[in-house]
UniProtKB/TrEMBL annotation:
InterPro entries: CapZ_alpha, CapZ_alpha/beta, CapZ_alpha/beta_2, CapZ_alpha_1. One of its GO terms (cellular component) is F-actin capping protein complex. This is F-actin-capping protein subunit alpha. Belongs to the F-actin-capping protein alpha subunit family. Heterodimer of an alpha and a beta subunit. It comes from Apteryx owenii (Little spotted kiwi). GO terms for molecular function: actin filament binding. One of its GO terms (biological process) is actin cytoskeleton organization. Keywords: Actin capping, Actin-binding.
Length: 211
């Protein structure tokens, strides 16, 4: 693979339809002679796609989303339910190398648990084949909760696939006994709809609504 071929291969991998990344990698194996560089580009593109597509992974009978919000670096991610870190293979989509991850059990953890429970009830009613996760971080005197939703409907034998990815950010004042009225509500929406016979559409929008 030449210096010109590598960016082209990476671009093709990043444009793979939802749920078909592995198939595109297999197809490129028939076209690209340098298998080692292909694996390198596939791993790099897979890591980039995962953080925006929120792929679900099963851990201890529950589902965790792989996102940039729970990225610990080095292809390791945080499971907010079991308080574990795990390694994630972006090509096979398999988790492993589980380790305990220290988390402070404070009021923020209680809020996150309550938000996750309500979010699960919401997505089960409105999104078929859906998964969700809630992540938390502190910034100065504000708690920020990231509520992430992933829903998909893949039909490899049909003519189209679809994927929905959404994320809402909630900001709370830390020292308030009651949650601060959503001072910032930042919904981020990405919808990928693929119709192989006609068109491939990616829609992404970021809204900032202050109340």
């Amino acid at each position: 693979m030449t210096d010109l071929e590598a960016p082209l291969v990476c671009s093709l991998l990043l444009q793979a339809p939802p749920g078909e990344f592995a198939q595109v990698v297999r197809d490129l194996q028939a076209l690209v002679r340098d298998k080692e560089l292909l694996r390198h580009e596939a791993a790099r593109a897979g890591a980039q796609r995962s953080k925006s597509h929120f792929p679900p992974v099963r851990i201890n009978k529950h589902t965790v989303l792989v996102t940039h919000y729970n990225d610990l670096g080095g292809n390791c991610f945080f499971d907010p339910q079991d308080k574990l870190s795990f390694a994630f293979d972006h090509l096979s989509r398999v988790a492993g190398k589980y380790r305990l991850h220290d988390v402070l059990l404070d009021e923020g953890e209680l809020r996150k648990g309550a938000l996750h429970k309500d979010l699960e009830a919401y997505v089960s009613r409105h999104f078929p084949a859906s998964n969700c996760c809630v992540f938390q971080k502190n910034a100065r005197k504000t708690q920020i909760f990231m509520a992430c939703i992933e829903a998909h409907h893949y039909q490899p034998s049909g003519c189209w696939n679809e994927m929905y990815v959404g994320c809402c950010l909630f900001h709370f004042r830390i020292k308030e006994t009651m949650p601060f009225p959503f001072s910032q509500f930042l919904p981020e929406l990405q919808v990928n709809i693929t119709n192989i016979r006609k068109i491939y559409v990616i829609y992404s929008q970021f809204l900032n609504t202050k109340q």
